[in-house]
Amino acid sequence: MEAYFDHEKLKVYQQAIEFIKWCNPILKKLPRKLAALYQLDRASTSIVLNIAEGNGKYTPKDRYFDIARGSALESAGALDIIITKEYYPKEQINLGKNVLRSIVSMLVLLIKRTSKGRAP
After folding, report:
1. What's 71's domain CATH number?
2. Tell me: the pLDDT tens digits for 65-78?
């Protein structure tokens, strides 16, 4: 992806985009009645949008990175529901959870870097 904006250069942003690409085929195959489908779609989108918005702020950015982190954890919860309800095998879903773990770790580093004296 060609970077037009600074947030597009962030590895965490790029991984969040990759997570959405990974989710898309799963979202298309889940039943429409499953609430976790909409939560996963919304939460995964929120990760990307909050990283972009937070990186573009001149004021404290950690609030947006915190929201992105929470959305990544919410996405992991939605994936757990998909496993529990047996829509997809655990091994396949764990691929996405590994990406989320990496995203969360990078967001924690961004939060620490952008907010002095605060530990998430």
Report:
1. 1.20.1440.60
2. 999 999 999 999 99
